[in-house]
Write a structure and sequence with these properties.
The chain has about 500 residues and is of the alpha/beta class. It folds into two domains: about 280 residues, Rossmann fold; about 160 residues, 3-Layer(aba) Sandwich (Rossmann fold), CATH 3.40.50.2000. It contains 19 helices and twelve strands. A six-stranded parallel beta sheet has the order 3-2-1-4-5-6. Strand 7, helix 12 and strand 8 form a beta-alpha-beta unit. It is globular, with a radius of gyration of 25 Å. It starts with 6 loop residues before the first strand and ends in a 12-residue tail after the last helix.
Length: about 500
Amino acid sequence: MNRQEAISVLLTTEGTYPFYSGGVSTWCHRLTHNLPDIDFTLLAVVTNPSPQSKYELAPNVRGVIKVPQWGLLQPAEYSYHQPPSVVLRNIWNTTAQGIAVRFKPTFERFLALLFSSACEKEELGRVLLELHSYFQWYDYRKTMNSLEAWNVFRHAVRAAWECRPPATAHPTLAEVKQAYRLMYHLLMVLHFPIPQAEIAHSSAASFCGLPCVLAKLTKGTPYVLTEHGVYLREQYLNLRNQIKSFFVRWFLYRVVENVVELNYHFADLVAPVCAYNSRWEKHLGVPQDRIQVIFNGVDPEKFRPTKKRDGGRARVSSVGHIYPLKGQLDLVGAAALLRPKFDNLEVRCYGTPTDREYFDACMRRVVEFNLNDCVTFAGSTNEPWNVYNDADVLAFPSISEAFPYAVLEAMSCGAAIVATDVGGVREALGDCGLLVPARTQQAMAEAISFLLNNAAERERLGQMARARVLKHFTEEQFLNSYERVYCKLLSRRPQQLLPAYDS
C-alpha cells in the first residue's frame, strides 16, 4: 500500500463475528487477521447485550461495538458510547410536543415508503438518516413508546389496506402490536452513532448494513457489501417457520425487502462470494457493473494433504453446524442405506448443535435405524484438517449453502467429496467431486458407495480438488481482491454529501 497511514474500515456483522462461529465469522477472522495494514472497527449487530467473543481479535481491530437488537427495551441501558449526561439530556429533550413536531412527520414518511408498492430508495435512505439523527438527540424508548408513535403506526397500517394481501385485511390488535414490537427492536440500530471510517463494509444485506448506508449519505463513505448467503431468501424461509401470523409475516417481509434493496441501492460494490448469489442481486436491480464475485479462500499450507490412514473402518465424515439447512438428517438416512453394503461403515458428523430440536431429531433417527455403532455426532473440532485427512469420503448434505469454507478446506486437503448441488457448491467443487440433488438420500448413498469402493477414484478426485484450490481459491487471492477493492473505492471517495442534523 502506498499510503503511510492505514486505511480505516468499518466492518459490520449480524449474528456472527466475533461472538458466534460459522462461515461468515471465519471470513471476518481471516480478513481482519491477514490484512494487518488495514485498521478495522467492528460493529456487530447481536441478539442480546452480553455475548462473549469466541475469537482472538487481530491487533489491527481498533474496537468492537455491540449493537443489541434484543435483550433490552431501553437502548440507553446499553449506552457505553454515551456519557450519562448525554443519556439524561436525550430523555429530558423528549417531550410530547417534540415528538409531534420533530419525530412524527419523519416516522409517517418512513411508514408510507415502507408500505409503498414502489419505494424510492434514495428517499428511504434520507428518511432513515433523519430518524438516526433524531435519535442522537432524543430518547429512543420514550419516543417509540409514545402514544403519538403508536397512533402513527396504526393509521399507516390502516391506510395500507390496498397494498396488503386479502389474508391481512383485518389484523387483530394483538397482531398489530406484535408487528410494532418487532419493528421497535429491528430499528434499534438507528439509536447507535456511526463510527468514523474511510470505507464501510457490511457482511450482509441486512440491518447491519444500515450504518454503512448512513455513513455513505453523511460522509460519502464508500460502501462494500459482501453477500455470503442470500439474506432475503434466508428470511423468506425463516419467517415462514417462526411467525404464525400472516399479517405480521407480511409486515416483516416488507421491512426486510426494503432493507435488502436499500443496501443494494447504496452499495458502491456488491461482492457475492459466488456467482450463484449474483442472480438474486441482479433480479433485485443491482447493475452488473456494480457486482464483483470474490470467492472465499483457504490457506493451502494449513489445509494440506497428509498421509491417509491404513486400513480400519470405512469412514465418512461431515463438518458443519447441526441445524436443518445443513442436512445431517439426510446423511443419517443415507447411512441407513449404506449399512447393509458396508459392515465396517463409520459415519462421523462434526459440528456444534445450534438447533437443539433438530439435533434431537437426528439422534432419534440414529436409534430408529439402529445405527448407534455406526453414526456418531462428534461435536466441534479445533483441527478440521485432521478430520478431512482421516476420512475416506467427505459428505456435505446441505439443503442450502453459499460458498462453504468446509468444502474448500476439504478440497485443499485432497479429500474425496460428495456434496449436494446447492448454492455455490458447484462453483467450488467443479468436476473434482460428486454432486447430488439436495434431500435425496438414495443418490447420496450411491455416490458415497461408489467412492468407498474405488480408492483410485478417491485419489484422483482428491488431487484434482487440491489443484483447483491452488488455482482459484487460495487465501492470498481472497485477501488481495479485498485490498484492491478498498484502495480503488478510497481513490474515488467524494466529499461529505449531507449536513449533520440540527437539533
